[in-house]
Specification:
With 211 residues, this protein is an alpha/beta fold. The protein is built from five helices and seven strands. The chain has two domains: 92 residues, Nucleotidyltransferase, domain 5 (2-Layer Sandwich); 90 residues, ATPase, nucleotide binding domain (Nucleotidyltransferase, domain 5), CATH 3.30.420.40. The strands form two sheets. A five-stranded mixed sheet has the order 5-4-3-6-7. It has a two-stranded parallel ribbon with strand order 1-2.
């Protein structure tokens, strides 16, 4: 699998399309040769998820392709499996305002992480209890609120990784599984998931396949 990855705060909009062109050229592919366009749908920063959704939508319209929205929390969990072999992952992203975006995954069929606790936004001390022992924590929420999360889940967390960030290759791996399961949507349904204030995003009353 080929990937382009760069940490560049506030430069996403300027970098993403040239990186897409570079990646397609390196793979010897055209946009229309793809099966779908996957994107990190959130939760995360408002600007980041809006850029991801907007770019995915534009590419999908241009290539006449479906879209697949992938949870940022699930991508973090998939990365933890890829990098460390962790089969149970509690992913937390710093949501600011003393809250975290929280979701928990367990390794499923095909070496793909599956959600066991649906994502939501919570104060660290109020995050939903883990269903069993043996979980590892990943994500910026653990960096920002590690002591509070450790206290909340002390009997079921066995370790954590500092500084973990979602990667495109993990979004792609989850998207492949979603595509095989028929979980795609039309380009105009490339909509972010914010979670905060119980904001829900549906199009004309239609539930999205990743909600």
């Amino acid at each position: 699998m080929q990937e382009r990855y760069r940490l560049a705060p506030r430069e996403h909009a300027a970098l993403v399309l040239p990186m897409v062109d570079e990646l397609l050229a390196a793979a010897g592919l055209t946009l229309s040769a793809l099966d779908a366009v996957a994107f990190g749908r959130g939760p995360g920063s408002f600007t980041g998820v809006r850029i991801a959704a907007s770019v995915a939508q534009g590419l999908a319209f241009a290539g006449e392709l479906p879209v697949i929205g992938v949870s940022t929390l699930a991508a973090l969990a998939q990365g933890a499996w890829r990098e460390f072999g962790w089969e149970r992952v509690a992913a937390a992203i710093d949501a600011r305002m003393h809250e975290v975006y929280w979701g928990c995954c367990r390794l499923g069929a095909g070496a793909v992480m599956e959600t066991v606790i649906g994502e939501g936004v919570f104060a660290p001390a109020a995050t939903p209890a883990l269903p069993e022992a043996g979980y590892h924590g990943v994500g910026s929420g653990w960096d920002a609120y590690g002591p509070a999360l450790d206290e909340r889940h002390h009997d079921r967390i066995v370790g954590r990784s500092a500084g973990a960030l979602p990667r495109a290759q993990d979004v792609a791996r989850l998207a492949v599984a979603a595509f095989a399961a028929g979980q795609t949507a039309a380009p105009d349904l490339a909509i972010p998931v914010y979670l905060r204030d119980q904001v829900t995003h549906q199009h004309a009353g239609q539930a999205l396949p990743w909600n």
